[in-house]
Amino acid sequence: MGLKSKIVALCFLATFVAVGSRYAYLSSNSVELPKDLVLLKGANSPGGSDSASLWYNSPYGLISVKEKWRAVVAYREAEAGFDKFEKHFGVRPERGLFSDGTVILEDIAYDRNLVKWTLVWPIKGSGPSEAHLNTAIRHELAHGFLRVYLWPWGSGEKVIDTPKSRYGSPAPDWLDELAAMSVEDDLKFNNRLKNFQAMARASAIIPFSDFFTMEHPNVSGETDPSAKVTVKKQLVGGKTITTTTIIRTPSGPGDFSIGTKFVEQGAALFSFLTEKTSDLQVFGKVSSWIQQGGSFEGWLEQYAVNANNKADLGSSLTEFEAKFIAWGKALKI
Ligand SMILES: [Zn+2]
């Protein structure tokens, strides 16, 4: 019996309650499939004609799920993840393979040349009206897209769900988390900004001199006590698959644990810099700068010169931080 341990995803997530109206397209009992989400049948199904899961083809790649409504959820999440990642990082992801966990990707016969990434992630809820529980999927996809397209490990392996020794990718942890949050839906993202505003008003932000070099609190073990860590082991086809999920619930204004501060500050940084520079792809540029050996402060200094400081960001980290905090305190959210 082979033993295989695998972290499917390690992430710092806050669950939230959303209004149902945004998902009205899923609220009826008869789930309408988007025209380009197509059920694969019989021999056309990568799982074969006796597959226990349903297989679909879509512009985003293959989707393998238990039920039809789950395919629609996965499709919508991929759609949002693809579009927003391209908008902010300038790269259109290629076709991949998503499974809600019913299929363990190593156990199926599929040609890796057909897909450029894979993600196994559970779909929560018991029906289509609960699609709002699943926006973590686009977040996880964006973690993966950053690694696959901008910060590869170097082996050429394009698999999203295979974190190695550190958080996400070789990118700095703050950038990895920021990229994932950049594709989130407005409700979730605005909650983060509200939390950040409370931090700014309480003078509780992490100094940027630490923020830009620190390890993700999930990795360094500084996750706050309210975080719930779930380790699930499944024996599939003689392999033990270990899934580790870290979930905090709920986070809200006044939660100043290091893990919350780290992610909410990253979200606020994304919002602040894209707004001030009027450049939706500014973090794509910051990412390239850092990848070439530069620091965020170095990027800031050259930006101040090249843009004649029209964004009024300051030209040192200290100045930048003061402007960031003032912006956060005054946010209208
Ligand atoms: Zn994340």
Descriptive overview:
- By secondary structure, the chain is α/β, with parallel strands linked by helices.
- It has one domain.
- It is 38% helix and 13% strand.
- The protein has ten helices and eight strands.
- A five-stranded mixed beta sheet has the order 2-3-4-5-6, with helices on one face. A three-stranded mixed beta sheet has the order 1-8-7, with no helix packed on it.
- A hairpin with a 2-residue loop joins β7 and β8.
- α2 crosses α3.
- The termini are far apart.
- The chain binds zinc ion.
- The site of zinc ion has 6 residues, from α2 and α3.
Write the layout of secondary structure elements.
Layout: E1 12-14, E2 38-40, E3 54-58, E4 61-65, H1 68-89, E5 96-99, E6 118-120, H2 136-150, H3 173-181, H4 186-201, H5 208-211, H6 217-220, E7 228-236, E8 239-248, H7 258-277, H8 282-291, H9 296-306, H10 317-330
Parallel strand pairs: 1-8, 4-5, 5-6
Antiparallel strand pairs: 2-3, 3-4, 7-8
The protein binds zinc ion (ZN).
Distance between the termini: 54 Å
- Let me know the largest β-sheet: 5 strands, mixed
Strand order of the largest sheet: 2-3-4-5-6
Tell me the number of strands: 8
Instruction: Please tell me the total number of domains.
Output: 1
Helix fraction bin: 25-40%
Chemical compounds bound to the protein? zinc ion
> What's the tally of helices?
10
Q: Which structural class do the helices and strands define?
A: alpha/beta
Rg from alpha-carbon coordinates? 20 Å
Mean pLDDT: 79
Fraction in beta strands: 5-15%
The SSE string, one letter per element, is EEEEHEEHHHHHEEHHHH
Unreliable spans: 1-29, 161-165
The best one-word shape is: elongated
